[in-house]
Design goal:
With about 375 residues, this protein is mostly helical. It is built from nine helices and no strands. The longest helix is centred in the middle third of the chain and has 132 residues.
């Protein structure tokens, strides 16, 4: 019975030699407790070999070397994790130099069933590995997409924040310049208006004073002439009885009055010239006021133009934001297409058997790039 179990286990181990790497990576526990709990095909084969050797110990089997797939289980050492010991290497050379052990004919159906079972187990493990790899790749793609979206969102928020800050700074600067221009304009306008009102009031006072003086002088001259003429004429008639000398005196007095009036006229001409000068100054002040009004209108036009420029900048900012969103969408689409192509390439180049090793998102992203 022990010989039969040993032969069967050895035959199955030799047939499962190509699946050794898959089993080595899928069973990393090499402790005694881990070997006792190993329920895989190779663990069962190792248990059968050890149990059959402890029961029967047939002649010629104890010294027969074990297959490579089970030697590392006996020696607690993996070929991929440091190689075999010298004793195990010597046993392998002896196994290669010895003739093959004759196989009993009655074990062929059992061998076939065991091989079929092992192939099914291996295919299930391969499918499980493929499912794990696909799940890990899918999780990585989801995390990568999520991170990319988060990064794009943060970039958009930062860009929007910078644009808002620039817009606020430009609006503040524009408002400050406009306030300075308005203050300067109001100050100049107030100064010119005040000087114009003062000059106008002074001229009006001068005109009123001169007019009243002229009226008073004319009334006085009229009264003097009337009184002098009537008095002198009556007195001359009484004294001389003839009006000729009287008229001579009257002519002299009229000459005197005419000279006085000429002097007065010259004085009034001077005042009139002064008034003309003041009038010209008033005209100049009015022209200056008109110029200031035009400058005020120009400032209003500039303010409206600056408002239009600010509105245009806002529209350009909106267009730039829309272009950024479009570029972000195209870039995200290109990244998704790239990831799909990488996933297809990785899926096409994947080997038939996959190790059950932990694949980190960093390693997958490195392979994808």
């Amino acid at each position: 019975m022990g010989e039969l179990m040993y032969t069967l286990a050895r035959e199955l181990a030799l047939r499962l030699e190509p699946c050794r790497n898959c089993w080595i990576r899928s069973a990393p526990d090499f402790s005694q407790e881990g070997r006792a709990k190993d329920t895989s095909v190779f663990g069962i084969l190792s248990f059968l070999l050890n149990h059959s050797r402890s029961i029967a110990k047939p002649k010629g089997l104890l010294d027969f070397p074990l297959p490579n797939v089970l030697l590392w289980r006996r020696g607690n050492r993996s070929p991929e994790r440091g190689g075999y010991s010298p004793k195990v290497t010597q046993q392998r050379h002896q196994e290669a130099s010895r003739p093959p052990h004759p196989e009993p004919q009655e074990l062929s159906p059992l061998h076939k069933d065991a091989a079929t079972t092992v192939q099914l187990c291996v295919s299930e493990e391969v499918q499980q590995h493929e499912a794990d790899i696909a799940r890990i790749l899918q999780q990585h793609e989801e995390e990568k997409t999520k991170w990319a979206q988060q990064v794009e969102k943060e970039r958009e928020l930062e860009l929007q924040k910078r644009l808002d800050e620039q817009r606020s700074a430009m609006e503040e600067k524009h408002e400050e310049d406009l306030q300075v221009l308005r203050a300067s304009y109001e100050k100049e306008k107030e100064a010119f208006t005040h000087s114009f009102q003062e000059a106008k009031a002074a001229l009006q006072d001068t005109i009123a004073r001169l007019t009243s003086q002229l009226e008073a002088f004319q009334a006085k001259m009229k009264r003097v002439e009337e009184s002098i003429l009537s008095r002198d004429y009556k007195k001359y008639i009484q004294d001389y009885g003839s009006p000729s000398p009287f008229w001579e005196q009257e002519v002299e007095s009229l000459h005197f009055v005419i000279e006085m009036k000429n002097e007065r006229i010259h004085e009034l001409d001077k005042r009139l010239m002064l008034m003309e000068t003041v009038k010209e100054k008033n005209l100049m002040l009015e022209e200056k006021i008109t110029t200031l009004q035009q400058e005020n209108e120009d400032l209003h036009v500039r303010a409206r133009n600056q408002a239009m420029v600010s509105r245009q900048l806002s529209e350009d900012l909106l267009l730039a934001h829309q272009a950024l969103e479009e570029e972000t969408r195209i870039r995200r689409q290109l990244e998704q297409e790239k990831e799909e192509l990488v996933y297809r390439v990785l899926g096409a180049d994947a080997p038939s058997t996959y190790p059950r090793a932990s694949v980190t998102p960093t390693e997958i992203s490195f392979l994808a790039t």
